[in-house]
Write a structure and sequence with these properties.
Number of strands: 0
Radius of gyration: 20 Å
Distance between the termini: 32 Å
Order of helices and strands: HHHHHHHHH
Helix content: over 70%
Shape: globular
Length: 225
């Protein structure tokens, strides 16, 4: 339990360290401070700011959902924050889909569509299984949902690795210059974060849980001698 709590805090602090510098400029509500290129039209920036706000709140409430102490000692608060998380994912996912129509890059647009689809579906399944009181399934689906929430973090963490991979692929000559390299990497970083998080959730997090559950079921079904 101590090791699990330590990992939880490390992941929380890492996520905040990555996301707060990215999100901070949008608190000014100044389009000129946007870190994302804005197309013509007046709706892109408000949609972008709202998406970032809901995604940040989803991240924070999501971390709270995995607190054993909160779930055991304050079950009412746990359920309330869970509802807030579901609402934030629903709004953030829908707004992410709306942002796709402002993207020039087909690769980036399909990444946002895929991420939003998996994010919304996993969260919906988590909500439905909670309503049905199938809490073991609920926990699995919410882990999947939160893994998609954290793609915003992993997609930025992998950028330096992708930059190095791009440079190595081109023999460190950078035919498109630094700007071309950065643009190419930012086209695929969401895809990379999505794939990495899916692997982490299904193989690293959920596989040991399922193996442990099967082992416990097998032990329970074995007669003592």
């Amino acid at each position: 339990m101590v090791k699990q709590n330590k990992s939880w805090w490390i992941l929380l602090l890492l996520s905040l360290a990555v996301m707060l510098p990215f999100a901070a400029p949008y608190a000014k509500l100044d389009p000129d401070a946007s870190r994302v290129a804005l197309a013509s039209g007046r709706w892109q920036y408000p949609i972008l700011v709202a998406h970032i706000g809901f995604a940040m709140l989803a991240m924070l409430t999501g971390f709270a959902q995995f607190s054993e102490r909160l779930r055991i000692r304050r079950p009412g608060l746990h359920r309330g924050l869970g509802r807030v998380y579901v609402i934030c994912v629903a709004a953030g996912g829908a707004l992410a889909i709306a942002l796709v129509f402002y993207m020039d890059s087909f690769t980036k647009a399909t990444a946002f569509l895929a991420l939003s689809g998996v994010w919304l579906y996993a969260t919906w399944r988590g909500y439905r299984t909670a309503r049905a009181r199938r809490f073991d399934e609920h926990r699995i689906w919410m882990i999947r949902s939160f893994g998609m929430t954290l793609v915003a973090v992993s997609g930025r963490i992998v950028v330096p690795v992708l930059l190095l991979a791009y440079a190595a692929q081109h023999g460190f000559k950078l035919p498109g210059g630094r700007e071309g390299m950065v643009a190419a990497v930012l086209d695929v970083n969401i895809w990379a974060g999505l794939v990495l998080n899916l692997i982490a959730v299904e193989w690293i997090v959920l596989r040991p849980r399922r193996a442990g559950g099967r082992q416990a079921a097998g032990d329970a079904g074995t007669p003592s001698v």
